[in-house]
Amino acid sequence: MDSNVGQQVGDFIAIYGLKVLGAILILIIGRMVAAWLRGLVKKMMTARGVDPALIGFVSSMVYAVIMIFVFLAALAKFGVQTASFVAILGAAGFAIGFALQGSLSNFASGVMLLLFRPFKVGDFVDAAGVAGTVKEIQLFTTIIATGDNVKILVPNGQIYGGTIKNFSANDTRRVDLVVGIGYDSDIEKAMEILLGLMKADSRIHDEPAPMVAVSELADSSVNFVVRAWVDKGDYWPVKFELTKVIKQEFDKNDIEIPFPQQVVHHVNPPAA
């Protein structure tokens, strides 16, 4: 009797001992490989200057996915049919994805924004119909502060799926003004004043050169297009200052800035 029990224990150890040992080795080696790949992903993404939040998330996802396959491989050593586990995981993933499709879309867009960086924190952008300074780029939303300091959380899916205007991307910007003068005013003198004002402002670049040109013969005015290149940080100060000094210089030189007007003709009815 005792010999039979001993033989059964020996057979059990012989059959399952190697399987247990194999499963443990798979778990140990798999964990080492997963940790190594996680570190490699972190190093590569850090070298590319990827956002730290995205680095942590992606590296953790890599580790988790590898460990799932390692766990399934360990179960397979015991003869467990892992196909059923894979099917359950797939079905659960599909159900969760369907229920959270909006959130997942925002998440995927957040990953793309952090990875490809169409803008960064501190940039002034116009995205998803919102214009302002980017304060924070999160995985699901981007926080933008408008010019009057209103905090707006914009879903990343709306940002990445639309047109993004980044006003801070380049070091220089062009100031564009449209200035109108009366038809009786001196066009050449007005152009000379406009060019002189731009050349006198040290913030305006010499190259590309400032430009003044007649753009339109409008109903009540002769319109000039005025263009000047400045550093991006000087855009609004130059635009505001240039608008003011143009008015002041035109007043000094008797150049009229007309307002919209209509000429009404009165037709007398024929005498009875």
Description:
This protein is α+β, with helices and mostly antiparallel strands. It has 3 domains: 2-99, Helix Hairpins (Orthogonal Bundle), CATH 1.10.287.1260; 118-166, SH3 type barrels (Roll); 172-252, Alpha-Beta Plaits. It is built from 7 helices and 8 strands. The protein has helices at residues 2-47, 52-76, 82-99, 101-116, 156-160, 187-200, 235-252; strands spanning 124-127, 130-137, 141-145, 151-155, 164-166, 172-181, 211-217, 222-231. The chain has a 5-stranded antiparallel beta sheet with strand order 4-3-2-1-5. It has a 3-stranded antiparallel beta sheet with strand order 6-8-7, covered by helices on one side. Strand 1 (124-127) and strand 2 form a beta hairpin. Helix 1 (2-47) runs antiparallel to helix 2 and helix 6 crosses helix 7. The longest helix has 46 residues, at 2-47. It starts with a helix and ends in a 20-residue tail after the last helix.
- CATH classification class of the largest domain: Mainly Alpha
CATH topology of the largest domain: Helix Hairpins
Shape: elongated
Helix content: 40-55%
Key descriptive features of the protein:
single chain; 272 residues; alpha+beta; Helix Hairpins; SH3 type barrels; Alpha-Beta Plaits; 8 strands; elongated
Write the layout of secondary structure elements.
Blueprint: H1 2-47, H2 52-76, H3 82-99, H4 101-116, E1 124-127, E2 130-137, E3 141-145, E4 151-155, H5 156-160, E5 164-166, E6 172-181, H6 187-200, E7 211-217, E8 222-231, H7 235-252
Antiparallel strand pairs: 1-2, 1-5, 2-3, 3-4, 6-8, 7-8
Helix pairs in contact: 1-2, 6-7
